[in-house]
Amino acid sequence: MSNLLETFQSLDTDQKRLVHLELCRNALQVWQEYAAQFEKIDYVEGVVGTYQVVDKSLPKDAFEAVVRGQDEKKIDWRYAEPISAMQDDDLEFPDQIEFAYYAIYNLFNKYILFQNIDDWLICNQALCSENDAEKYEDLLNDAILKSL
Question: pLDDT by residue (tens digit) across 80-130?
């Protein structure tokens, strides 16, 4: 994997974006398969005690915003509550689902809000959304090849 990491780090900005998109496409699929198991995902926000329902379409909307290059659906605003709830442990997901959610969130922050998000962080989170760690290398290799 270290050679793939070095290969990834040597890519130009546009190629890294393509790798991010490819890996987050997989993370989005992981999220969607998880979310489809539930009629709704809800939690109680701890500070005020309000009942919240997770917007299951938010990661898809965020991914599509990155593909389009603009936020037409107020995604930044929509992420505020669930990300805060995750950080406060009011909203908890299995580890791989949390990685998928954060990978797409960070993808959005990097390419739509132009925040300084580490390139490898997005890759790492997206790869960790995969249940089978033995697939990490293949996923990264395939994403790199598609970016060339």
Answer: 999 999 999 999 999 999 999 999 999 999 999 999 999 999 999 999 999
Domain limits of the chain? 2-40+56-76+93-147
What one-character-per-residue DSSP string does 65-125 give?
HHHHTS--S-HHHHHHHHHHHHHTTSS---HHHHHHHHHHHHHHHHHTS-----HHHHHHH
When computed from its CA atoms, the radius of gyration of the chain, rounded to whole angstroms, is 15
Q: Are the beta carbons of 35 and 58 closer than 8 angstroms?
A: no
**Statement: residue 2 has pLDDT above 80:** no
**What residue type is assigned to position 120 of the chain?**
W
At a CB cut-off of 8 Å and minimum separation 6, what does 11 contact?
19, 144, 147
Distance CA 66, CA 104 (A): 9
CA atoms of 37 and 88, how far apart (whole Å): 24
What's the predicted TM-score (pTM) here?
A: 0.95
Q: Which two tokens stand for residue 3?
A: 């050679």
DSSP-derived pairing of the beta strands 42-44 and 51-53: antiparallel
Closest-CA residue to 107 (of 23, 5, 13): 23
